[in-house]
Amino acid sequence: MTTAPPPLLSAQDLHVTFPGRHGAAPARAVDGVELDIGAGEIVALVGESGCGKTTLARTLLGLVPPTSGRVSFAGKPLEYSSRALKAYRRRVQLVLQDPSGSLNPRHTVYDAVAEGLRIHGYGGDERSAVAQALSRAGLRPPERFFLRYPHELSGGQRQRVVIAGALVLEPELIVADEPVASLDASVRGEILALLLRLRTELGLSALVVTHDLGLAWNIADRVAVMYLGRIVETGAVEQVLTAPRHPYTQALLSVLPDAPGTPVLLTGDPPDPSRIPSGCRFHARCQILTNGEAERAGVAEACRGRELEVLGGGGERQVACHWARATV
Questions:
Q1: Would you say 146 and 167 are in contact if contact means Cβ atoms under 8 Å apart?
Q2: In what order do the strands lie in the sheet with 230-236?
Q3: What are the residue boundaries of the ABC transporter domain, all occurrences included (predicted)?
Q4: pLDDT of 172-197, one tens digit each?
Q5: Is residue 36 domain-resident?
Q6: What residues make up the domain containing 13?
Q7: Residue 65: inside a domain
Q8: Is residue 88 one of the residues assigned to a domain?
Q9: Considering the entire predicted model, what is its pTM?
Q10: In the 8-state DSSP scheme, what is residue 166?
Q11: How many separate domains does the chain show?
Q12: Over the stretch 286-312, which tens digit does the pLDDT of each residue have?
């Protein structure tokens, strides 16, 4: 009997807590997360602003050490010495949402892409490596872009330069934080198609952090929906986005342009990681509790008072919701 290979990247019972300011309660930005990303898999991490998804992504990159729990890569726990993190960041690269902020306006495209090679003491042919990375990112012929500056490029071209800067070290996984949020709609499809092509050609894995469920639908194999520091629903993208079971996922989907029915307007206070409620952490804003469906299903008290367990990090369909489980 063959055993399945370990996930390429894995978070196990991950917690990240920041101290409160001026005597305020600590902020539990990541509050118990299990998340696996397999080799060649694209996972979308979805949620509204303030849900903890960027903190989780930074922790997976080793930029923020966890308060407890651990991050593993290729089956080995991540170490936080300078040497270990430098080696890790050759294998896992970050792509930020704002290419203008990611690129030094005084550096040419060549220098921007070559920076990672120089930091890591690359011993090969630098010019060839830069040209190959630019070509893979869709900037061809690459030599035509070597001496250009960021202000001479379009937004889509700048994002391709950022992607080339990540690719030049030949990583196994990229973490893309809102990779198309600052781009025109006409360019977004090109960048998404590029990420999918890189997965096909290079076997690249990706974690795509986004608030946009439409983007997740177009690019991801699997989706993890995050609310107030935890994954509340996860599974194959087709399962979750065609038949969402968690009320929060339903609300996020309801405001997409082509969504059927009436958009769900969430009431109550926005999520505050320093004031996590008892019971289901979404219950204070939950439309299912407000409209009486949870009461009719006999789970209203559980919603308000019984906390749900942390979901597993694998690929199976899971939901952290008393009502969804009662009405299967």
A1: no
A2: 92-95, 173-177, 205-210, 42-46, 222-227, 230-236, 318-319
A3: 9-253
A4: 999 999 888 888 888 988 999 999 99
A5: yes
A6: 9-74+172-326
A7: yes
A8: no
A9: 0.94
A10: H
A11: 1
A12: 999 999 999 999 999 999 999 999 999
